[in-house]
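Forgive a beginner's question, but would it be possible to get a protein, spelled out as residues, together with the matching structure tokens, please?
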Amino acid sequence: MFRSSVLSITTLAIASSSFAAPLFIDRTGDISHAYVGGWEHFVGGGVAAFDCDSDQFAELFVAGGAEPAKLLANVTTESGANLAFADATPDNLKIKSVTGAYPIDIDGDSITDLVILRVGQNVIMRGLGGCKFEEFSKLQFSSGEQWTTAFSATWEGNNALPTLAFGNYVDRSAPDGPFEACDANSLYRPVDGAYAEPAKLEPGYCALSLLFSDWGRTSKADLRVSNDRHYYVKAGHEQLWNMRTTPALYTRDQGWIEHKIWGMGIASRDISGDGLPEIYLTSMGDQKLQSIQGSGATPTYTDATFGKGITTHRPYKGDDGRPSTGWHVAFGDIQNDGLDDLFVAKGNVDQMISSAMADPNSLLIQNQDGTFEEYGDKAQVGSESRSRGAALLDLNLNGLLDLVVVNRRANLEIYQNISTDTGNWASIQLTQDRQNANAIGAWIEVKADSKTYARELTIGGGHASGMLAPEHFGLGKTETFEVRITWPNGTKSDWTTLQVNKFWTLKRVGDQVKADAY
């Protein structure tokens, strides 16, 4: 049973739209944790957000770099109460050299497992319930001593276990490195209930983010890779792997347009309403929002215009006019007005003099005309620490998205969303009694008023940071909505009418859903 009460919050002046401006308050309290270390921890610094004690409130597993990682228990007293966390790290999660982590239910037992990325051997921990874990020895998973900085997973065909992709950065053993010494990425496909030696995805161009996505709605996910030009220097570019029996890169002849950026993070969300996901890419200098051309028959993407307001290419406050450096990125509807917004974690690599040192995080609020406006400072989340990973999710179960930010050589930050005069919302979690218990690869379609929202369930993206949490939909002023699920195998449920402002679990029954509110 989860907790319930009413949150009392300060009233704000109503903005010119029917919803007030967003506002957050720092609830970090006495939690102390930073991502630290030498050059191998200039990148990474992720957080995994997931419920590991079955009370619906998400915990946080935070990378520490040269210091041990931490598991922070969500000890918020009741629904809507002030956020509160406490250190509850079991000894076997006090792991050093962690760059990031992603929650995933690998074996379909409805208990979340944890993929931990490291400078060194990566680790998969099996969830036992009650926030306890053990090494997942049954999987026979092993990795080399790579410098791993990215991860994504998907279920292919009827496989009981997921396909796992690990993005590796600079090959530290290369004698002529580090420049132009990018390591190959690693692809693990299951065989007989376990993982053999991985296939190499080559060439590797120093990956900092991976995302399996069914970008063309064909019920087959391909692997997008965002790469760091700082180390591949000249020969590399962004990549999209066609996940056929033998993976192959999409080419220009197949519609793929090469982009060269200092790629850090990936986020995917349909914000245009055409049912196909846009892609947001963080980088040094500016950020990109890309939309697929036409019906999605080919992976041909074009950049949004500068007037869209999404580049966040320089600090929006202070007097440091040097270019910004973007890391983690997340979509989410902050005011529940039915328009997805963007959070971008920013911060200097360390002491890179060509980039801004005081580089505040960005909160880009979407306007009714589809443009975005900077609210990081006004919403009180514009930290100037060297931010890295982040998580944007409802941490106190009151229907508003909260924020966690991991910082390099500075304390992490936990922000509670206290925005007022917000719209209606719905939280939707999918389950199925089979492998892939969380239906990763499914699409949720929501119809509210005259709009249809399409949302793909994925594991990966961001910057070294992953979530396994219900999908949050802001719905504006609508009182009811309809939902339809396209399951990972491409079959569809019927449309089902549900009420707003509830947490819904949709369990698969055949190809239909059984809806329960909690």
Remarks:
- The longest strand covers residues 386-393.
- Residues 229-232 form the longest helix (4 residues).
